[in-house]
Amino acid sequence: MTTDTFIAACAKDRTQTDSLKWDLVDQRFGGKDLLPLWVADMDFAVPEAATEALHRRVEQGAFGYSIVPADYAAAYQGWQARHWQTQVDETWLRFSTGVVQSLYDLLHCFTKVGDAILIQPPVYYPFFDSIKDTKRRIIEAPLQKIDDTYRIDFAAFERKIQTEAVKLFLFCSPHNPAGRVWRFDEVQRLLAICQKYHVLVIADEIHADLILPGNQFVSAVTVAESIGFQDLIIVNSPSKTFNLAGLLLSHVWLPSEELRDRYDAWASQYKQTEVNIFGLTAAKAAYQHGDQWLAEVLTVIQENADYIAQRLQLEVPEARIAPLEGTYLLWIDLSSLEVPNLKTVVQDSAGLAVDYGAWFSQDYDGFIRLNLATTPTIIETALDRLIEAINTYKAQQHFEEDTHDN
Ligand SMILES: Cc1ncc(COP(=O)(O)O)c(C=O)c1O
After folding, report:
1. Cβ contact 376:300 at 8 Å
2. How far is the CA of 128 from the centre of ligand 1 (A)?
3. Residue 245 beta carbon below 6 angstroms from any ligand 1 atom
4. Cα 139 to Cα 111, 165, 180, 204, distances in angstroms
5. Which protein residue's CA is at the shortest distance from atom 14 of ligand 1?
6. pLDDT tens digits for range 263-307
7. What is the pLDDT of residue 376?
8. Domains along the chain?
9. Using CB atoms within 10 A as the burial measure, which of 137, 180, 186, 311 is most buried?
10. Phi, psi (5° rounding) for residue 177?
11. Roughly what angle, to the nearest 10 degrees, separates helices 376-405 and 291-315?
């Protein structure tokens, strides 16, 4: 299927469908007719097999309490084995309504009020929220920005663990918003440090399936096995991969029996353990039959990323883009434009709703994050508007400078 055929078949007008991204955008951002490139879901219909499976389940008509389908784990394991050569044991798997919900759960379950939790900003802002809301302490080991690529400062990471007595590390892999797909050796060095200081690791691998050509995702589970590291929990979900976020289904993998027992004991006291049959029905079908669909989505994402890079390079050379290795979220550095308040250009002038860098770290004020999982037409419109707004801003600046000089 070409990109055009995929877009013709799968692109969806999501307005007036109770979509958070489209129907809440003006209210959330305090604007009017904003073009939404913010929250991370897709403007595409899910794999046809998932829709058909949902249809069949709806036709059946009774929606009483449900159990996990007997062949769900096999479908999920099949996907993991086909894509990442990761072995997941069925006994490790627990379900939740979302990865963010799981972050809160796991912090409650495995840490205490006041414990030090390490994160690597700039990072997905609910990482900050989950730590603050559960009254733990945020400890930051920022990523290093070298040229436009993000790297881990391992010495600083280890120092923070030592000096702050870190209990738990929240690892974002692949990384939102930096777009990095961490390599085996990078993950191994992180886990080895955590092993040395007995730090529990929660690896958020929700973007694991969204890997662009030339990059290779490696799960922390695989790396942990190679060094005999036990203190690891993985959270992930079919929701980013197949655009199923509204069906509220996510996974918690607990490879360690000891951690599993602690989690189960905690969950039986505090957590809803029933499952959502629609989430499981759609995810199972997508894991079984969604390979080609995902390949096509990744092509669209790559083309959208290339289009933006080419236009910005020509038309706004001040903009810098972090190379997109994974995720569908493009991290753009507009700081050298020195706009005092980026919202005046991006939102008020261009009419775009984006994620702002400051949400991910106080040090990234001049950055924006664009969601590429949409049509080339929307991306083109967004770029037209953004470039025009930037040009208008630059012209005003020159005018003011000239007036000032005269
Ligand atoms: C790193 C990361 N974790 C979690 C989520 C959200 O997951 P959920 O909707 O399952 O809570 C996102 C969404 O963008 C994300 O980027």
Report:
1. yes
2. 13
3. yes
4. 14, 10, 21, 17
5. 40
6. 999 999 999 878 899 999 999 999 999 999 999 999 999 999 999
7. 97
8. 3-46+291-405 (3.90.1150.10), 48-289 (3.40.640.10)
9. 180
10. -105, 5
11. 20
